[in-house]
Amino acid sequence: MWLPCGGTSNYIVTHFRRRLFKAYFRDLGRRRCNVAAFMPEAAGFDGVSDRSALQEFSVSNSESFWAAVARQRLSWIRPFHTVQDCDLSRGEIKWFVGGQLNVSVNCLDRHVHTCPERVALIWERDESGSEVKVTYRELLEMTCRLGNLLRRHGVKRGDCVTIYMPTCPLAVASMLACARIGAAHNVVFAGFSAEALAERIRDAQSGTVITVNQGVRGGKVTELKKTVDTAVQSCPAVQQVFVAMRTENPVAMTARDVAMEEVKYQTNWILIKILMSTAGDYKWHAVVQEMLKEDVVCEPAAMDSEDVLFLLYTSGSTGKPKGLVHTQAGYLLYAALTHRYVFSYHDGDVFGCVADIGWITGHSYSVYGPLANGGTTVLFESTPIYPDPGRYWEMVQRLKINQFYGAPTAIRLLLKYGDEWVHKYDRSTLKTLGSVGEPINTEAWEWYHRVVGDGRCPVVDTWWQTETGGICISPRPSDADAEIVPGMAMRPFFSIKPTLMDTEGKVLTSNDVSGALCIAQPWPGMARTIHNNHQRFIETYCRPHPGYFFTGDGAYRSKEGYYQITGRLDDVINVSGHRIGTAEIEDVLNQCAAVAESASHRVFSQFVQRLPKTRSGKIMRRVLRKVVERDLDGVGDLSTLDDPTAVQEIIQGHGDLC
Ligand code: 6R9
Fold it and tell me: Is there a contact between 97 and 82 (Cβ–Cβ < 8 Å)?
């Protein structure tokens, strides 16, 4: 600030100056105050007076940023002595070294102390209109009982428990029970085949499986216990299978199940039966008190920050699925912070992430992020079109959902059914709409924003991966009125430093460029290794661009510095020397009314009824590519494929090629 001094009226100038200085400091104080109200930790960060300064601080002082956040937001049994000890080029990642904590205590006990009757979970069962609410106190009790049950059956710290269950409170309690006793969980999506399940059980060296008798999704019953029976035949290490009852139909028990002591089995059975048959008005906790035998107190294990919390398998383009490993403190903290800030989640909000718990989105944003924040989270068991295409919005109205988080594939599908299905229901509780899993094309983005959100809710296109643990790029957090560009993930989250590389591996420093998306410095939520195969971890993520984490995705950085994900790098199409992502081609195709969705490939020009997709809804472009390349042997791992007949149809359509 420059002010003229001296001259004819010193008094006036001095007075004027004082007022200006006062106004300046008042404004500075207000800005500091705003940023501290936004994030209390920021009050202790030097020179951080507004949100953009906070973002810059988090990138250039990542250690101080995360140390403050970790102290503020997690309950520690023993404080950490070293914030981070990372070497990206060797794939050695450690956060909050020396610290000890228990994830289930952070997700449950500390909220039970302050608000035991707050609803933790709203189970939106497949049968619409029969939701079940579980409070923090109830979820803690369930978790402790299960923890005790597992302990009594010999599950120890460091063991791995496979969970093959639909999205339901008992699945969440199973995850948290593992965390409580220090076992790792390995949730396998309950739509996977027996072979896919067996492969994951074997690779994880899992000795215990938790499942249900039958699953129900979209009104269809699936035989989950039978699938487990088939799977464990080729898994000699499996000692025990716990079976919960999702439906009333009894299932055949095998020798393995019978071998368990009757009383223990009974306890498990009762626990499950109470929970699973619960309808809206069922007073289940009264029955729990009466019937459950397990103690409601279960001593939490003191876990080191870097002990394994879970494995989650994700398919690679070739070879067998990778069991990505996430650890305790860093993962939980990152899930919690992104959940709070990307979606602007506030106490009392109802958070509706419709992903299945079998995917990372379900882990981070149905379970760990919301529970670490003491939130109320919806567990969605059904499909977007069951019993009709109004399912999501009827649920939003009934459960008064404030943040809705879904996938572009579902949005594209619903868009084709027309606006009436949305208009029928009251969506005035919605504040933020999120998208994840694939690039969201402009048409779907605009429909989501205009029709679903009535043009008043920010749409956050969130880019991240199983490997990143939580959201890395998304339009928020940023000032409430900061612009959001349709179809762009836009801005890095706190401490994330996205970097684009050219084909020679050089860092692209300017804007308006496309390249391979890497992340230049470690963050607490990133995966630590691939289970039993650290070498593969290094080769896949660390070696392509030494010193950087390589994501495998391509991205464009706009003139303004915003990021747009263009899709997996191996999907990039070269048209007359221009690198074009499949997303851009599909964007154009999707604007034709006759096209429901599309997946493009440079020599693929045939219209098909269905596209091969993973069970989480991602189009499996590599399968299309291999078909047109006539390389059927090279299609790689198909265990995540939703409907194999879609591939058969395409192969038949390409009879001349294959
Ligand atoms: C969270 C999740 C990761 C891959 C990722 C990318 C694609 C996810 C995206 C997106 C464009 C987005 N992806 N979010 N592409 N825009 N907002 O989906 O994890 O199942 O491991 O998949 O999904 O290609 O590399 P995961």
Answer: yes
